Amino acid sequence: MDGLTKTDELVFVLAATNLPWELDAAMLRRLEKRILVPLPEPDARHAMFEELLPSGPCRMEIPYDVLVEKTEGYSGSDIRLVCKEAAMQPLRRLMTVLERNQEEVPEDELPEVGPITSEDIELALRNTRPSAHLHAHRYEKFNQDYGSHVHG
Predict the structure, then answer these.
(1) Does 69 score more than 70 pLDDT?
(2) Which end of the chain is more exposed for a tag (fewer CB within 10 A), N or C?
(3) Of 148 and 5, which is predicted with more confidence?
(4) Where is the AAA ATPase AAA+ lid domain positioned along the sequence (predicted)?
């Protein structure tokens, strides 16, 4: 970037923002290519759920197709939140059991954290709403005004 260094070597800078319209003119001038990255497609959402939701031989079969369908319009960050919320439900159940028990439970007698259930996933979807749609028109407008349109 101009003024950062006194060398003939090229410097490649990659930046990302969720609020590109808040970048000032000086920053926009220095970012040669401005590319709008769209929300994840179904295949990408499927891969994210496979990566982020725990699975194993004693775990339930995760309904990936249903998750992909129900998360249309979700950002990658939204999907990560759905997975974290679902993964926390078994721990919350265990904490409720332990809180009901007035006596201290010896460590070797602690119950195991159970697997994620389909109900956990449903609850996580109900409690995690997509966020990107709030600014969809602003992303499109920014892309029209400042985006780098590469034609192949």
Answers:
(1) yes
(2) C
(3) 148
(4) 64-101
Domain boundaries, the chain: 40-133
What is the C-alpha separation between 101 and 151, in angstroms, rounded?
A: 65
Which amino acid, residue 43?
D
Asked if the model's pLDDT at residue 4 lies above 70, the reply is: no
Q: What pLDDT score does 2 carry?
A: 56
Q: Which CATH architecture has domain 40-133?
A: Orthogonal Bundle (1.10)
Mean pLDDT value across the chain: 85
Selection from 139, 150, 147, 122 nearest residue 39 by Cα:
139
